[in-house]
Design brief:
The chain is mainly α. It has 14 helices and two strands. It has a two-stranded antiparallel sheet with strand order 1-2. The two termini are about 25 Å apart.
Length: about 425
């Protein structure tokens, strides 16, 4: 059956994507909870550092997907752009290899300090694999080829559940810690495998149905803006545990661990879906610009209301649950718990406003909003204050300022009355 396109595709597309995103979140949660239960604390600290580094690089590379989603559409007869996507993806992959090798060396020698070669190789495999996958996923979004998007969303988390699960099961069977290197490869390799699977499954669509609105230099130029913004996003999400470790270096380890657990677990239900939906929202706002402002307001209001409800639930029940199941962890005080959920809501809203900005082609404003957010977050982390209030400022101030930057930009130059495509 042919998949719908243009503005009418949005409801069907969302119905197709939401189950995949829900399953992805469940699988990610399962891994995040299973690893610390099975491995010893030393391995877990090293594994967490690698996980944060990998997904920070992946978050940066998601800017590739965002730009391709904005630029792509289903081709009319004779207008396919395979000659653009292929060289673009090659250049992006080479850049990803170089950057991940440098980042891997720095992290391996200064933070993890063991298995240096494995850290570098695993990071290269994961980041290059994701860069390729992101190019294809962005094309699927832009063409509104929703079955391809679902495959792109599900392939790597499903494969990662299998690979990491296998490593953990073998460790349990042998009665010993699995070690850092097997876990790193089990986490990183699925990105590369997923790129192969999606490429083989949808190569026909990518060659014959894809149309891009610019050439390779234009895509690369625009991608610089989206990657800068996505890197800032990664710093505010995947890199936040590293930030908390830095500001809590003088605190009791159980408190710092509790704060990291808090931002890792409770923020994901709000942030992860909106990060995954950015490309969908960009296409949706682009296809129906006359309804974009209203949709931004409605989605943002729902997100913030949900954040308030979750904040109350976690503040009341969170400490009891953590004490019962993870007695070596101590959650921070209530203001920090509330701030963690409020900041999650603000980051999710920033994803929505960012998609609206990107839909009208304002790459610079898109990047500025995210970059200002991350800069303000880092500045807040440097404020001399007690740990709880320093954590509150670090969590909330950055995304709040970023939302304001995007909102002001949209109000000054709203989306056009008709689609640009």
């Amino acid at each position: 059956m042919a998949e719908p396109t243009a503005g009418s595709a949005a409801p069907g597309g969302l119905r197709a994507l939401l189950p995949a995103m829900l399953l992805t979140s469940i699988l990610g949660y399962a891994l995040q909870l299973a690893v610390p239960v099975i491995v010893d604390s030393t391995t877990y600290v090293q594994f967490s550092a690698f996980w944060a580094t990998l997904f920070l690089c992946v978050a940066a590379s998601s800017g590739v997907q965002q730009e391709i989603a904005r630029a792509a559409a289903a081709a009319e007869h004779g207008t396919a752009s395979d000659g653009v996507l292929r060289p673009y993806s090659t250049i992006i992959s080479i850049a990803a290899l170089c950057v991940s090798a440098i980042v891997g060396f720095v992290v391996a020698t200064t933070v993890i300090r063991v298995d240096v070669l494995s850290v570098i190789l695993a990071l290269i495999i994961g980041v290059v694999g994701y860069a390729i996958l992101a190019s294809m996923a962005g094309a699927m979004y832009g063409m509104q080829r929703w079955s391809g998007v679902v495959w792109s969303i599900l392939s790597d988390p499903v494969l990662r559940t299998i690979t990491v699960g296998a490593v953990l099961i073998v460790a349990l069977t042998m009665g010993r810690d699995p070690g850092l290197a097997p876990l790193m490869y089990a986490v990183a390799l699925p990105f590369f495998l997923a790129a192969i699977v999606v490429g083989l499954r949808f190569r026909g669509d990518l060659r014959t149905r894809l149309s891009l609105d610019t050439n390779v230099p234009g895509l690369l130029r625009n991608t610089m803006h989206t990657v800068v913004a996505a890197t800032s996003t990664g710093l505010m999400v995947s890199g936040l545990p590293l930030m908390i470790s830095a500001i809590g270096h003088a605190e009791v380890p159980s408190l710092v661990a509790g704060a990291i657990l808090l931002v890792t677990v409770v923020r994901a239900p709000l942030i992860s879906p909106m990060l995954a939906l950015q490309s969908f929202l960009t296409v949706n706002f682009r296809s129906a610009p006359d309804r974009a402002a209203r949709r931004v307001l409605i989605i943002s209001s729902v997100i913030l209301a949900l954040a308030g409800v979750l904040a109350a639930i976690v503040a009341i029940w969170g400490p009891t649950v953590v004490t019962a199941f993870l007695p070596t962890y101590t959650l921070p005080e209530v203001p920090a718990i509330v701030a963690a959920l409020l900041s999650a809501g603000l980051v999710a809203v920033l994803c929505v406003t960012g998609a609206a900005v990107l839909a009208r082609g304002s790459h610079r404003l898109f990047a500025v909003g995210w970059v200002v957010s991350s800069v303000v977050m880092v500045a807040a982390a440097l404020v001399p204050a007690p740990f709880t209030w320093r954590l509150v400022l670090t969590l909330v101030l950055g995304p709040a300022v970023g939302v304001c930057v995007h909102a002001v930009g949209l109000l000054r130059a709203p989306l056009p009355a008709t689609s640009a495509r």
